[in-house]
C-alpha cells in the first residue's frame, strides 16, 4: 500500500513516525557544533539504526559512524559506510573473524580495547592475517561500565598496543553515560567537563611517553556540547541527538518540539473518564523511565497535546493512561506519543514512516534492527 501523500492520521497504529524537518534540523545542529569547534563528528547509529539517516549525517559533515555491535557495523558497511568505530569490547575469535570480513570490504575499521588480555588476543589473531587493526582505548570517565581508569592505566595499555605486531593505536575515547543519571543541568556540565579532561589528560600522559594519540573522542548526547569545547578534544559522538526523546527533555537537554520521533497510537478504550487505553504497550514504547538511577520522566511516554494524560503503566500491547481532570479523547481517536527512550523504541519497528507537516513523504527501513551480536 502506497502511503505517500497521506495524512499520518490515516495510518494504522501503532506506527513509528519520523518528522523529516526536525531530524534534519537536529543533524545539522550536531554538524554545525562540530564545525564551529573545528572537531570531527562521528555520530552513533545505535539510536536510529538506519542507512538513510546515516547518509544524511555524512552529507552534513560527519567523518564516519559509531556502532555498538559488529552486526550494526556490517549493516552500515553494506549501506556504503567506510569509516566505522565499533565502540564495544571485542575479544572472541568468532567476532574477530567478522572484523576481517568488514576489512575485506574496505572498511576503515576501529574497535574498542580496555584490557591487556584483549590486546594480546587481538594481536595474536591479526598477526596471522595481512591486516593491521586500529584500536582505540576506552577510558572509564565515571559510568563504571567498560573502560580502563584514566592516566597510568591508559598509558600501560597504550604501551601494550604500540608494542604489538598487528595493532595500531588510533585514539582514546569515552562515553559519559552517567550523565543520564544527573539531577540538574549543572551536574551534566560537570560530567561533560570531567569526561573531556579524563580523555585529554590520558592522551597527554601517553604523549609524554612518546605515544602519539591522534584522536581524543567523547560522546553522550547530554554532554557533547560541553565536552566538545574542551581544548584537546578532537571528536564528538552523539547518538540520541538525531531524534531526542522525553528523557532528554526531562534532563533539560532539549524540548518536546525538537523531538523528531513519535509513535502514532489509537485510543482503544475510555473508562469512566478516568482511564484511557492506547494500543502502544511495552512492545512498542518499552519500559524506560530514565537511566542510571534517574527517573527523569513521568509515565511511559509524552502524549502530545494532552497534558491531562499520564501513561501510568504498560502491558505488552496496552498503554494505560490516567486522566487528570477531563479529556476530549474518545474511542478510535489517534494521538502522537514521544517515547521516553528513542533508541530502544526504534529497535522495535521495521520501518520509519517519514512525514513532513503531518503528510507522509517516504518510508525508511530500520536497517540494523535487532542486530545485537
Automatic annotation (TrEMBL):
UniProt keyword terms in alphabetical order: Lyase
Q: Which domain of life is it from?
A: Bacteria
Q: Which Pfam families match?
A: Ala_racemase_N (PF01168), D-ser_dehydrat (PF14031)
The record's section on SMART domains has: D-ser_dehydrat
Q: Which InterPro entries match?
A: Ala_racemase_N, D-amino_acid_metab_enzyme, D-ser_dehydrat-like_dom, D-ser_dehydrat-like_sf, PLP-binding_barrel
> Where does the D-serine dehydratase-like domain lie?
260-356
- Can the keyword Lyase be found in this entry's annotation? yes
What family does this chain come from, according to its entry?
Answer: Belongs to the DSD1 family.
**PANTHER family linked to this entry:** D-SERINE DEHYDRATASE, ZGC:162816-RELATED
What is the protein name stated in its UniProt record? Answer: Alanine racemase
UniProt source species: Bacillus carboniphilus
